[in-house]
């Protein structure tokens, strides 16, 4: 086994998985794209124990993206890369984390506020209790709170920033990679937000204005639309049919033609053959935020649809 595989295996606690599996004999394995490369080695560990494995070929973008169809045909489904978000029997979550260090002096140099809340994705949030102590020793007052339905304090998802609800901090420090979650934290909290990337040791002040401006352009297009397709995903944790029905009633009252479209995976190909002027996404919020350019028609969030209909004034991030 190569050194890269060994590194991956160091991050997977197989004894803990086998303990949770118990007497199960047939095991489904669901992995995010980054771990599918190692599926032969991972599956091999189960087969050494005399277990039969079946690999899920479905995409796995998050903890709510469970292969429930495969689950019907196995004793247990082992879902790699994410922590528990939805409670479904016979599903074992195997989080994927990385070790890292923070540079408190670098953070202190770039963040003038001293009363901060720290947030981040699962990959980094597992270490936040230790990070909190380090930053407090450097002179910060650190707020670290639990959110709804997540495993670690300070953990955020692309659709869940509840650990920042009623935050008393003066600023938010997002620790992790990329800017999507950092922008979400800034919009949700309404506070000055910074992003710290441990592996590059960079601190960036998060700008939300450009993001919101682009969203308002889509809202303007929605205001000029006459027909809407409301998209609903049947995936656990994303299924918001009641929200879709409420939005449809509100739109019908205003004379718009609206239909609800249900699918497992919401993709441009799914909607391509429909002829709606605009789509409202009630599935994973990142579909509307990240994949806008992939759709030939505008795709907006439920809250943006409410703004377009005159039901809401203030811009808010979509939240499941």
TrEMBL record:
Reactions the enzyme catalyzes: L-histidyl-[translation elongation factor 2] + S-adenosyl-L-methionine = 2-[(3S)-amino-3-carboxypropyl]-L-histidyl-[translation elongation factor 2] + S-methyl-5'-thioadenosine + H(+)
Entry keywords, A to Z: 4Fe-4S, Iron, Iron-sulfur, Metal-binding, S-adenosyl-L-methionine, Transferase
Pathway: Protein modification; peptidyl-diphthamide biosynthesis
Single Gene Ontology MF annotation: metal ion binding
The keyword tRNA-binding belongs to this UniProt entry's keyword annotation: no
EC class (word): transferase
GO terms of biological process kind: protein histidyl modification to diphthamide
Top-level lineage group: Archaea
InterPro entries to which the protein is assigned, alphabetical: DPH1/DPH2, DPH1/DPH2_1, DPH1/DPH2_2, DPH1/DPH2_3, DPH1/DPH2_euk_archaea, Dph2_arc
Cofactor(s) demanded: [4Fe-4S] cluster
UniProt-listed Enzyme Commission number(s): 2.5.1.108
NCBIfam families attached to this UniProt entry: arCOG04112, diphth2_R
Similarity field: Belongs to the DPH1/DPH2 family.
Stated role: Catalyzes the first step of diphthamide biosynthesis, i.e. the transfer of the 3-amino-3-carboxypropyl group from S-adenosyl-L-methionine (SAM) to the C2 position of the imidazole ring of the target histidine residue in translation elongation factor 2 (EF-2).
Protein name: 2-(3-amino-3-carboxypropyl)histidine synthase
Species for this entry: Geoglobus acetivorans
């Amino acid at each position: 086994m190569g050194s890269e595989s060994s590194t991956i295996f160091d991050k997977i606690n197989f004894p803990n998985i086998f303990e949770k599996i118990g007497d199960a004999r047939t095991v489904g394995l669901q992995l995010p794209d980054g771990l599918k490369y190692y599926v032969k080695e991972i599956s091999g560990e189960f087969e050494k124990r005399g277990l039969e494995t079946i690999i899920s070929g479905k995409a796995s973008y998050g903890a709510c993206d469970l292969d429930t169809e495969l689950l019907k045909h196995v004793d247990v489904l082992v879902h790699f890369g994410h922590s528990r978000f939805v409670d479904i029997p016979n599903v074992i979550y195997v989080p994927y984390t990385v070790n890292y260090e923070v540079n408190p002096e670098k953070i202190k140099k770039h963040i003038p506020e001293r009363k901060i809340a720290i947030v981040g994705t699962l990959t980094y949030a597992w270490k936040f209790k230790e990070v909190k102590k380090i930053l407090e020793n450097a002179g910060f007052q650190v707020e670290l709170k639990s959110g709804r339905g997540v495993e670690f304090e300070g953990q955020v998802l692309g659709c869940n920033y509840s650990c920042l609800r009623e935050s008393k901090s003066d600023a938010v420090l997002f620790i992790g990679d990329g800017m999507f979650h950092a922008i979400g934290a800034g919009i949700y909290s309404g506070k000055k937000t910074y992003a710290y990337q441990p592996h590059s040791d960079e601190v960036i002040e998060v700008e939300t204005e450009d993001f919101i401006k682009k969203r308002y352009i889509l809202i303007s297009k929605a205001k000029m639309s006459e027909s809407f397709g409301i998209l609903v995903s049947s995936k656990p944790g994303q299924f918001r049919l009641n929200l879709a029905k409420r939005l449809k009633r509100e739109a019908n009252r205003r004379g718009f033609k609206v239909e609800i479209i249900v699918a497992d995976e919401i993709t441009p190909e799914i909607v391509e053959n429909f002829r709606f002027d605009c789509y409202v996404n009630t599935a994973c919020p990142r579909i509307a935020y990240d994949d806008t350019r992939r759709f030939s028609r505008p795709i907006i969030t439920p809250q943006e649809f409410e703004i377009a209909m005159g039901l809401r004034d203030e811009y808010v991030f979509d939240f499941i």
